[in-house]
Amino acid sequence: MYNKINSNIIQELETITDAKNIITEKDKMEDYSHDETVLPHLKHYPELVVKPCTSKEISEILKIANKYNVPLLAKGGGTGLAGGSIPIFGGIVISLEKMNKFLELDEENLMATMEAGFTLRELKEKLKEKNMFFPPHPGEESATAGGIVCTNAGGARAVKYGTVRNFVRAIEAVLPDGHIVNLGGKLLKDSSGYNLLHLMIGSEGTLGIITKATFSVMPLPEASLTLIIPFDNVSKALKSVPEILCKGIVPLSVEFISSKLINMSKDYLKKTWPVKTGEVYLLIILEGEDMEEVEKSSLKISDICMKNEALDVFVAEEREKQEEILEIRSMVYEALKSITIEALDIVLPRNQIEPHLKRVEEIEIEADMWLPTFGHAADGNLHTHMSKVNLKGEIIPDWEEKYEKIRRIIHDDATGRGGKISGEHGIGIVKKEYMNIFTDSTLLKLMKEIKRSFDPNNILNPGKIFDL
To answer: Which residues of the chain, if any, have pLDDT below 50?
Structure first.
């Protein structure tokens, strides 16, 4: 279907960028063969890696890929969880690691512009200097600007601010044929024809390579509190969430997680967790203009939770303690990684979280497979970690076969409740089979026609989201 890399292609690439920016040795391509997806059979090595320094260089590389019919994809921080940046057909990987400059902080318009390889961690530090922040902030700080736009990344703050899509104002992208386009602008409103900017956001690198991004940013809130509220079961914890939201309180984030998972994470990090009681925690972060406002919301939340049989309410005021709590929560995936097959990314209507969790608990017992689940209680995004171990903690001999069956049962239950298969990780290759099962055929046909319109030769990140 595609052609292999040959000496002519390498010679033409060397006329575009310095030879030192081209990698052809397989032993130097390990970092480009995978993302954070733990399924080992998904690893694929590219035939060649190129590290361009400009959008113009990327444009010329794409022209060569089209000319020789060679598959190509762009790679950022490699933090994806759906196999979206794995070169399953070999070909060329364009690494954006050299396109990592911060370009502008427009304080009057409250917008920040950077190259696609600039990381979230760097953005956080850059904005902090000016007492500003990027509200969505997906959890993995080594993710890059281009990557979070490609996946429309979410994170815990989506309940208050929405996903990355809500903050992308403009992008520069290179289309599959090599044309460089600028979409959007320093604008808060735009009704000028089809919104191609929003079409590109979440397209997982299948429609174009994002080279620059402009994000809306905001002044850093003056005050914040983190609440840890223990309950003796998840039902009582989740009952409090709609009551909090219906009181007009909009926390920065509302998460639920079991004490067992928190203990695994704190042990992994060798840190301490300030709460000892309870089986399940609500982890709620509040922010506001002043401490009086935040404390008022905190008291209202405490009252609601105590009425719903919370065991206690722990309040962290110091930034250091809040950051330590967040770090322990954020590292749960790393603590589970050695036994995790896949972290599911189901999103549901909020009132369907509890019945879905009950079904997952039933499946866990029926299959004798540990299925630890936690997530964003206020936006309906759940992460069931399908593990290789049974309920006694022993490795399941036939875990690969069992995984495929159980995964389908869980997704069937979620979609039957009005849910979807990805809230923030994307489809990539991991969830591709479900696009045919759970997507309306008319809509899937439209998506494929859009892909063909942008990329008639299907060279750009082929085999992701769906097959043509």
So the answer is: none
What's the CATH number for 223-330?
3.30.70.2190
In this prediction, residue 38 carries a pLDDT of: 78
Please give the helix or strand (H or E) that residue 141 lies within, else none: none
Strand-pairing partners, residue 375, are 256, 382
Any idea where the domains of the chain sit in the sequence?
A: 7-95, 102-219, 223-330, 335-416
Tokens, residue 315: 């309040």
Do the domains 223-330 and 102-219 match in fold? no
Out of 3.40.50.1820, 3.30.70.360, 3.30.70.2740, 3.40.50.970, the CATH code matching 335-416 is 3.30.70.2740
- Provide the 3-class DSSP secondary structure of residue 445: helix
Confirm if 282 and 231 have CB atoms less than 8 A apart.
yes
Q: What is the C-alpha end-to-end distance of the chain, expressed in Å? A: 12
Give the pLDDT of residue 344. Answer: 96
Which distant-in-sequence residues (6+ apart) come within 8 Å of 81 by Cβ?
A: 35, 36, 37, 343, 345, 425, 430
Residue 283: what are its φ and ψ, rounded to 5°? -110, 110
What DSSP letter does each residue of 6-49 carry, written as one string? -HHHHHHHHTTS-GGGEE--GGG-GGGS--S---GGG----SEE
β-bridge partners, 383: 374
Token readout for 345 is: 């990314």
Running DSSP on this structure, what letter comes out for residue 165? G
For residue 113, report the phi and psi dihedrals to the nearest 5 degrees. -120, 135
CATH of domain 7-95: 3.30.43.10
Query: What radius of gyration, in Å, describes the C-alpha atoms of the chain?
Result: 23
Please report the pLDDT score of residue 319 as a whole number.
85
Pick the closest to residue 149 from 173, 126, 128, 125 (CA basis). Answer: 173
Helix (H, G, I), strand (E, B) or coil at 461: coil
Q: Under CATH, which number does the domain 102-219 receive?
A: 3.30.465.10
Helices and strands in the chain: count of H runs, count of E runs: 15, 19
Whole-angstrom distance, CA of residue 96 vs CA of residue 110: 25
Task: Sort 189 into a burial class: Cβ within 10 Å, 0-12 / 13-18 / 19+.
Answer: exposed
- The pLDDT, as a whole number, for residue 25 is 96
The DSSP secondary structure of 103-128, one letter per residue, reads EEEETTTTEEEEETT-BHHHHHHHHH
State how far Cα 343 lies from the chain centre: 11
